[in-house]
Specification:
about 325 residues; 12 strands; about 15% strand; globular; binds NADP nicotinamide-adenine-dinucleotide phosphate; oxidoreductase; Aldo-Keto_reductase
Length: about 325
């Protein structure tokens, strides 16, 4: 397994990380046994970075990862780099009621996560969305106290813009920013990625397959179950979906010529962005994971990259990446 280091101060991790969200939430029903088998297959393949959020299934995802690591045997926890997002406020009906980045909340959220994961530390801890009521210095300062106490190893950020990144990095060492980055979502290239590079902060890219839309497996008539985020996502709706799947078909032609799948081409493109970018893939089945891992063997030369970017031009995607109500929480979208 190839490895990459998260920023100048962060841990060295597998060049591809496993995002576990869909095993507990947001993408409809998941199979628990297959989810755990997928985590085990990832660990066996040398994947070390496991990403979760305490609000993915209200703790379900952390319990699942904790169980998978225990079952994987002695040493599995220490070999893994667990990245946890916190701060999202939920309700029992699955609703979202904002974000809490107060220092007391940081300590409270972390205590529950450690218990659910069955560990004494989190490797990378990050606020999932900026809390507009709490200066980022206070939230990062509270995580830094947990670093001092040994309960957190590194501080990360999620979906924040350049100014917030600078303020956070001036408070304490930040190892990475987790943010959406794919052929369909290139918004970070203008200001956010350069700021990260200037400050020695790595990027863990999520949505590299645009939540399945860019995987080559999405079909126009796919039915979505209740609670599936994609049912409300502008990119999966109506004419936008038609236009976006046309782009996927164009990418499919390039991928076929290269002898790879669409998903592998999309992941390899993100891997080609730089050694400081680590893609997370949201595989929740072993066959999907195996396909994603195949991207690590794909080398894209300048002609391949040009063909891919011609098939999917930088601003060609139709629709915002989140519904309007959720876009309002994105500090990263405020420019
Ligand atoms: N910081 C943030 O704000 C934030 C937001 C969202 C996610 N994340 C993190 O990033 C991770 C990845 O995000 P994501 O799940 O949206 O990204 P993704 O990898 O773009 O999408 C995952 C979806 O793609 C489908 N897929 C098809 N072929 C695949 C393949 N070969 N490998 C993997 N997936 C394939 C899966 O479908 P099927 O399961 O239907 O087969 C799954 O529904 C999450 O698990 C989470 O940990 C972070």
């Amino acid at each position: 397994m190839r490895s990459r280091t998260l920023g100048t101060t962060g841990p060295t991790v597998s060049a591809l990380g496993l995002g576990c969200m869909g095993m507990s939430a947001l993408y409809g029903q998941a199979d628990r046994t297959e989810s755990i088998a997928t985590i085990h297959a990832a660990l066996e393949a040398g994947v070390t970075l496991l990403d979760t959020g305490d609000f993915y299934g209200m703790g379900h995802n952390e319990l699942l990862i904790g169980e998978a690591l225990r079952e994987a045997g002695p040493g599995a926890r220490d070999d893994a780099v667990i990245s946890v997002k916190f701060g999202a406020l939920r309700d029992a009906a699955g609703g979202w009621s904002g974000y809490d980045g107060r220092p007391a909340a940081v300590k409270n959220f972390l205590a529950y996560s450690l218990q659910r994961l069955g560990t004494d530390h989190v490797d990378v801890y990050r606020l999932s969305r900026l809390d507009p009521e709490v200066p980022i210095e206070e939230t990062v300062g509270a995580i830094a106290e947990e670093v001092q106490a040994g309960r957190v190893r590194h501080i990360g950020l999620s979906e924040v813009g350049a100014e917030t990144i600078r303020r956070a990095a001036a408070t304490a060492p930040v190892c990475d920013l987790q943010i959406e980055y794919s052929l369909f979502s290139r918004g970070i290239e203008k200001e956010i990625l350069p700021a990260c590079r200037e400050l020695g902060i790595g990027v863990t890219a999520y949505g590299v397959l645009s939540r399945g839309l860019l995987s080559g497996h999405w079909t126009r008539d796919r039915e979505l179950g209740a609670g599936d985020f994609r049912g409300a996502s502008p990119r999966f709706s109506g004419e936008n979906l038609e236009r976006n799947l046309d782009l996927v078909d164009a990418l499919r032609k390039v991928a076929e010529q290269k002898g790879v799948t669409v998903a592998q081409a999309a992941i390899a493109w993100v891997l080609s962005r730089g050694e400081d970018v680590v893609p997370l893939v949201g595989a929740r089945r072993r066959d999907r994971l195996a396909e994603a891992l195949g991207a690590l063997d794909v080398t894209l030369d300048p002609a391949d990259l040009a063909a891919i970017e011609q098939a999917v031009p930088a601003d060609a995607v139709a629709g915002e990446r989140y519904p309007a109500a959720l876009m309002a929480h994105m500090d990263s979208e405020r420019g």
